[in-house]
Amino acid sequence: MNTNAIASSTAQPRATVIFTCVLAALAGLMFGLDIGVISGATQFIQAEFKITDHMIEWIVSAMMFGAAVGAVGAGWLSATLGRKRSLILGGVLFVLGSLLSGFAWSPETLIAARVVLGLAIGVATFTAPLYLAEVAPEHIRGAMISTYQLMITIGILVAFLSDTALSYHGSWRWMLGVIAIPGVLFLFGVTLLPDSPRWLMMRGRRAEAVDVLHRLRGDAQVVAREAAEIEEQLKTPQRGWHLFLENRNFRRSVGLGVLLQLMQQFTGMNVVMYYAPRIFQAMGYATDAQMWFTALVGLTNVLATFIAIALIDRWGRKPILYTGFSVMAVGLGVVGSMMNMGIQSHAAQIFTVGMLLVFIVGFAMSAGPLVWTLCSEIQPLKGRDFGIGCSTFVNWIGNMIVGATFLSLLNGIGNASTFWLYGALNLAFIALTFWLVPETKGVTLEQIERNLLSGKRLRDIGQ
Ligand code: BGC
């Protein structure tokens, strides 16, 4: 019995951390479901309500709009309500939004439902990475936050697969409504999470914070050190917006977060997420094959995320970003060239599909997970909510722009040039990574903060 007690006392903190992070990462699952679910549903919605393409665009992008608003509000929410209760609120909105989507009686209701879903995702995509950065111990912080991205990709894949299955019956209501189920699970799981120790300290609830740290870390010395570090930082209370106006160094980290999210979105990833069937059509494939290849895209996205999880705390952030942007540039460049030459043979088709998958691998192993990780690491505590709020907001704005311009680009400058354009952007991101992105592997958030606020160059704040 004694041995058991000892074994469980050493194993428990790690188990608690993993449980905590997996649950918070379920927010990522819902994010992915939301991104993936609409592409398969639109044609059936259009047939039932007899609406124009324009109305469909409204329905699709209402979610991104809601998410942008949710991300802005989430900064304030997570500071006042706390991280945990913000996640719960996100869960409630998610369930309501999915049910309303499934039962929508008009295109307008559907738009409203998508805005509610967006709000949910905005709140969750802001709060989950913040929470993860605050509860995960340094040595696994990167991997934990990548788990969040893994859940996003699994959500997208599940949505692609469920859409494909339900498309045989044309049941768009089920496609949209069924995601309430993971929403309920999330809601249930998240109520079991501990509050973030940092947030508890911020609210003056020291004893509770220490108690949570004990459950997360187990080791009394580590707990004492972390508690003291957090307290030290809280001695100079300042808040986001004021800090932004007053402090040039904070403006630099906010700018970096915004830039990172723009880089992530302008890799062109969501072009494939929203329009994969259309891209496969341009390669000369019939409907059936389009659906299957879309599912393959989803699967590749999931699998390649494991590369990031394995490498993030070994290679570090920058080498992975260099590799990812290079792989994406090559993938898109070749897809563009194939489209330029005209894809005539079966072999050429397969090769082009392969290169599109190479692009997906490039994203999933790098910018997908790493941008979320970096954004949660680079902000000083006093402005973390505000800083992550700004960058998450920009993630959704970028997402909206990319989603809303792809078809116009194809029609305006042609297939090949559109892919080349995104390929060229990826090349430019290699240079931006070199100049501006810090290496944060294995560095404490406190150290990053000290470096930033002492005026070090952005790319040096992890040293
Ligand atoms: C991005 C999403 C994207 C997803 C694809 C996320 O990191 O923020 O916009 O759809 O990755 O896996």
Could you walk me through the main structural features you see in this protein, from its secondary elements to its overall organization?
The chain has 463 residues and is an all-alpha fold. The chain has one domain (9-193, 236-460): Up-down Bundle (Growth Hormone, Chain: A). The protein is 83% helix and 0% strand. It is built from 20 helices and no strands. It has helices spanning 2-49, 53-80, 83-103, 107-135, 138-167, 172-177, 180-190, 197-202, 206-217, 220-234, 240-246, 248-265, 269-282, 287-311, 317-341, 346-364, 367-377, 384-413, 415-436, 445-453. Helix 2 (53-80) runs antiparallel to helix 3. The chain starts with a helix and ends in a 10-residue tail after the last helix. Residues 1-10 have low confidence and may be disordered. Beta-D-glucopyranose binds next to helix 5, helix 13 and helix 18.
Q: Kindly report how far apart the N and C termini lie.
A: 46 Å
Which fold name is given in CATH as the topology? Answer: Growth Hormone, Chain: A
Oligomeric status: single chain
Chain-averaged pLDDT: 87
Task: Please trace the helix and strand order, writing H or E for each element.
Answer: HHHHHHHHHHHHHHHHHHHH
List the helices and strands and how they pair.
Elements lengths: L1 H48 L3 H28 L2 H21 L3 H29 L2 H30 L4 H6 L2 H11 L6 H6 L3 H12 L2 H15 L5 H7 L1 H18 L3 H14 L4 H25 L5 H25 L4 H19 L2 H11 L6 H30 L1 H22 L8 H9 L10
Helix pairs in contact: 1-2, 1-4, 1-5, 1-7, 1-9, 2-3, 2-4, 2-18, 3-4, 3-7, 4-5, 4-18, 5-14, 5-17, 9-10, 11-12, 12-17, 12-18, 13-14, 13-18, 14-16, 15-16, 15-19, 18-19
The protein binds beta-D-glucopyranose (BGC).
